[in-house]
Amino acid sequence: WDETHFGKMGSYYINRTFFFDVHPPLGKMLIGLAGYLSGYDGTFPFQKPGDRYEQHSYIGMRGVRLCRLFCAFLGSCLVPFAYLTVLELSKSLPAALLTAFILIFDTGCITLSQYILLDPILMFFLMGAVLSMVKCNSCADRPFSVSWWLWLSLTGVNLAGAMGVKFVGLFVVLLVGLNTIYDLWDLLGNLSLSLVMFGKHLLARVLCLIMLPLALYTAMFAVHFAVLNRSGPGDGFFSSAFQSQLIGNNLHNVSIPE
């Protein structure tokens, strides 16, 4: 059922048809982009679960060859992400290998990753945020280095990605936020660190973990509204003034009082 739901929204993006959904737009935009780049023309109706795709090119959005297909590829990335995270935290190769082994043979993870769903995209950004946070923590002894800035920025990018797919991404924002508070509290208690240097640490985290994710999250909606410029099933949720901007709507370019 969910594949029918989100596959249809991918088609909406390809056809530039406006729609309304409870989730933020990033996951569905990426699904639509994958379909567009792989030759899918957005004509499959996605009317009910189990419909055969037949001649429609759906390979870019869904498939079982994990290294080549979008959702499956993101799902397969969870294995190295988990491996690197556990290796960084435990410094134990057997523990990291065991984690990777468990994920490789996890039936739920394999199943979620082979359909047109938001879940593999969400999990990719969630685990990417955790990995980036852990890597940034490991660079604590060399703050403001290139690697420190890289991992801190990637943490912010992945936070925006997680929030941009589903609001449940707030949980990883909470995790990173608590880790940042602990880190800053520890720095504040370091008497050898000047207040100016502490201010630089605080500013860096505000820029990378607050301002950067907010800017990217806002940009997702800017792209969303720029792409979906044709009338569709989501018109009625918005004002008449907004509907007048949609091509094909009854109110398009109609002069109406503000």
UniProtKB/TrEMBL annotation:
GO terms for biological process: protein O-linked glycosylation. Pathway: Protein modification; protein glycosylation. Residues 1-229 form the ArnT-like N-terminal domain. Its main location: membrane. GO terms for molecular function: mannosyltransferase activity. Belongs to the glycosyltransferase 39 family. This is Protein O-mannosyl-transferase 2. The lineage of its organism: Eukaryota, Metazoa, Chordata, Craniata, Vertebrata.
